[in-house]
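Two entries, shown back to back:
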Amino acid sequence: MLLRKNSQFVIPEPEVPAEGMGFHNPLDPNRDNADPRVVWCAETGYYYGISTGNTTLTLFRARSMAELFRAGESKVIYEANAADDTYGYLWAPELHYVDGHWYIYTSTHQTAENKGFKHVIVLAAKTDDPFDGFKLGGHINHDVYAIDPTVHCWKGQWYICFSIVTDGQQKLAVQKMKSATEVEGDYTIMAQADYDWELVPPYHKGGSPINEGAFFVERDGRLFIIYSGNGCWSDDYILGIIELVGDDPLDASAWLKDDEPVMTKGNGNYGPGHATFFFSPDGSELWISHHCLHGHNPSVTGMVRHCHCQRVYFDETGFPHIGMPVAKDVYYPLPAGDCGV
């Protein structure tokens, strides 16, 4: 039997970077960056960053990750409007490069009146540069309550994963894509909250068990989904991992959820979750961006969520290891190939 992961793997201690070649988490301590998405684009030489908005989405860019969200440029690149049938609550926008074009996958109210029901939408870049703005690309599953969409190309076929509400729970579903803005066939529910560490009150008891905020990670022929459990205002928002162990992503039995989380609270940070991933400028390192709280939140009320970034490590089997969020006072090295400041 092949070893699926090395549970004894120890994440290396990062080297102390030279002056100007490191950064402190969070990227901007004064900004609410819930559900952050960070991307490096070699063609433009910029990092791009985006996070949850209400009726507008703002895109940030910077030459070094150390300046993203803080000292770089920013621009409103989309505003919800009735002509597009978009009405706000533009949650968890994810910027992706699909078949030679930039798209943002997010969600919105179903109608102007029905603000309690959300569905997935796709925004398409107006030009080859995402900083030039976006227009509506399409609505996906307009009558299905869904949030937190993400996409990935696996063996030549694009798939979308999102969190849906059914049977009083938030579950993860995956669906085949016909194009960057359309889906085809039915979706498959392939994960729900099962383990004690993703069923922590108060979201579980008297509320809805939650799996959400999925993102695909591919490594050496293995495909993973890293997702969030519990609720985003909880100290115990947490990251879990699911692996495709069968052949068909639309077969629910082909997915295996690991029984241990891959990121938990610690080092003075609470509620780490809603992760996205990006490669370093030289392509040699995979990095995680996620949000977390900077204080204990026993009342589970709205708090500022800060964007943190750190390197992901892989053991000899190809399994990803992340650990706890890096402490705020650690001067952490920038991604390999970053120009620094």
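entry 2 starts here
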Amino acid sequence: MTEPKSDGRVHPRAPIELRVDYKKLNSFFADYTKNISKGGTFIRTRKPLPVGTRFLFKLGVPTRTEPFELLGEVVWSQGEVDDAGMGIRFVYNDDAQRFSFEDLVERLMTDSLGSELTGKLLNKTVKP
């Protein structure tokens, strides 16, 4: 198991903004991520869901024709502040979904940050 960072996170995050669509009660919402990692994301929203809420969301990724559907669980939330939103932990159906999504996140991080910085964040050796 990977040791948590000083801020309690296990996986490093990258500042990547993606559209997120999800349903709360009978209303649909479209918000944006502020950052993402292999283990979760922060969704900026003025109306965060309660901690412990599990919900299906669709993550729009520029390199995919269809959004990535994933189950998430709210692990913390903050409202009524400039940076209102909720921290989401990804809940995978199986290892295949986890591997597929982790590969996608790693590619997004590389596109956003470059291979050298992504390699350092993920503790990987960068191939020349």
